[in-house]
Write a structure and sequence with these properties.
2 copies of one chain form a homodimer. Chain A has 355 residues and is α/β, with parallel strands linked by helices. In chain A, the strands form 2 sheets. In chain A, strands 4-3-2-1-5-6-8-7 form an 8-stranded parallel sheet, with helices on both faces. Chain A starts with a strand and ends in a 22-residue tail after the last helix. About 1% of the residues of chain A have low confidence. The interface between A and B is large, with 43 and 43 residues.
């Protein structure tokens, strides 16, 4: 059993912990957290061993009456590997600690690519992380684009990709973020950093991305154009995407109009925290104009990188090859939205909370 | 003096009335309105002759104590021309009334193109409306795209245009519209109706558009890609757009990050209702990758078609040729954002209402 320490128990860290715990070949050694808040209490209630970031912080946990096993340095010593889910930039600082104890680590996409030996997406470049000591799982948006581009590149060849990323302003637990009632080019310059980040996975790919931020918290939405090297048939392209285990092609008869209904669908399906680990590509949006492929896809920013973190661990420790690891992860997490076709009655409007 | 009746006194109608009134060669005959609400009171206070939509509605106005001159049929008789600013689809129904009294009319972009002899954008196809009896001013988004594409097409040739339109969910005076905290592919299918609508102005243009709707009310934002027939230089392309009288190239040192600050800038500049009649193209966003041109532009959905309505009237009655009409309209309305470079001090954050 691979003993995995989770350094940083926020949006990503707590989800990675739950995902690792459900794997047959991994166990959670413990989770390290900065603040003794409700999330720390939840970690203890979930049965995780809790660690404070450092000695100074440890006192705050004890004062709050929260039982800790030590500091993150202790966790690094006791774990076979660390998944670093601290805020962007902190992970790079932490690498020194991991190297000090010769502990391999997985970093998240908010770190610069140089933090690790390779950037990682299970679908596109699993083998690049085979036996690697430091691996960076690319961000939610880059993961979403990589999953979509891999089958298109393999089957048609990609001449050029142009994507507009309509980004959620913040997560539901980030009340300090905006915008409110605004639409921001973010960044104003073109291309956004997402294009170059996709190139850490596909070094030869021609891609330009434009980023926009809007007042929403549930998911990102991508408007994607891919000029292919051959002319695809719409039905074949759709079948191609439907065959991808981490792409959920939203059927027309589901009547899912946006991100809110997608997340509600996931909640109804019993997903933990209502998470959607898959890209959600609207089937109706898959279009072809000459060699130009188009689609809309929604990306759950809190969730889509979670299975990738699990697969990155397997690659680093050479536990399973790509196909097997992805199958194991999918089965244990329950990536089966595709197998539960929505059966909504054609009712126009139903009763919400009548407050 | 051209006597102009305004049928429909909502978001567009009241702005067209104010714009027509400020022209040297036009006068407002009166405005027709459906409901005796605060907007009707404002019309009277602004000095406009008020008309009810029909006899039945006339009683409601009298009951509300609002003085009316008659019904919209009376307005059609008394006017040289009608600007129809009723909700989409109603204009087409009204055409019968206008024909009955042999009164020419301008329709808005929410009508289907077949409502009129030609669709219209002052920059791109002014002459098509020369002497025409029925003209349709294309929608806010199509107007914005047409103004941007005209100079690019003339100077470089356009091989293909791909645009993602991030649309505001509703105007500030539309409390019943959504979404709240959602991002909607709207429509889900590709292309959206905007591409074909641009082709009513540029029949030969290859264009694919994707529509998205978000929780904002202030402006639309367009992420635009234009594959040109020749390779542009960034500086030259920027100079080209800066020379357009209805494009405001947002300077970098203005530190304008989104639609909210653009509208605040217009309010500070004393614009009526804080309106922005120009396309707002972020200078920093103008980019070139090979023959691919990119930019972000914000479009004030309530305002950008207003000068176009005025110019359409001049074309229909052969009052002035394109260049002269645009100059007259711009001067009377005050399209001079470009001449008022923002002089903000580099303060990171200033005090908002401390409620």
């Amino acid at each position: 059993m691979l003993s995995v320490g989770i350094n940083g128990y926020g949006t990503i860290g707590k989800r990675v912990a739950d995902a690792v715990r459900s794997q047959p070949d991994m166990t959670v050694c413990g989770v390290a957290k900065r603040s003794p808040d409700f999330v720390a209490e939840s970690a203890l209630e979930a049965g995780y061993q809790l660690y404070a970031i450092d000695d100074e912080r440890a006192d705050a946990f004890r004062t709050a009456g929260l039982n800790i096993e030590g500091t993150s340095a202790d966790l690094v010593v006791e774990s076979d590997v660390i998944v670093d889910a601290t805020p962007g930039g902190v992970g790079a600082q932490n690498r020194t600690l991991y190297e000090q104890y010769d502990t391999p680590a997985v970093f998240q996409g908010a770190e610069t690519p140089t933090v690790a030996d390779t950037s990682f997406n299970a679908r596109a470049n699993f083998d690049d992380a085979w036996g690697a000591e430091y691996v960076r799982v690319v961000s939610c948006n880059t993961t979403g684009l990589s999953r979509l581009l891999a089958p298109l590149a393999e089957n048609y060849g990609v001449e050029k990709t142009r994507a507009t990323l309509i980004r959620r302003g913040g997560d539901p637990d980030q009340p300090g973020r905006g915008p409110i009632n605004d639409i921001l080019p973010d960044p104003i310059t073109v291309p956004s950093h997402h294009g170059p980040d996709v190139q850490t996975i596909f070094p030869e790919l021609s891609i330009d991305t434009m980023g926009v931020t809007v007042p929403a918290t549930l998911m990102h939405l991508h408007g994607v154009n891919v000029t292919l090297e051959s002319t695809p048939d719409v039905e074949t392209a759709r079948d191609l995407l439907e065959a991808e285990s981490r792409i959920f092609v939203v059927p027309k008869d589901a009547r899912i109009k946006g991100c809110g209904e997608l997340r509600e669908f996931a909640r109804d399906a019993g997903r933990p925290r209502g998470d959607i680990w898959e890209n959600c590509v609207w089937g109706e949006s898959i279009s072809v104009d000459g060699r130009d492929f188009y689609c809309f896809q929604a990306i759950h920013q809190e969730a889509d990188v979670i299975p990738e973190n699990v697969d990155a661990l397997r690659a680093m420790f050479e536990l399973e090859r790509a196909e097997d690891s992805v199958a194991t992860t999918n089965e244990t997490l329950g990536l089966s939205l595709r197998e539960r076709p929505p059966e909504r009655s054609p009712v126009i409007s139903e009763q919400a909370c009548d407050d």
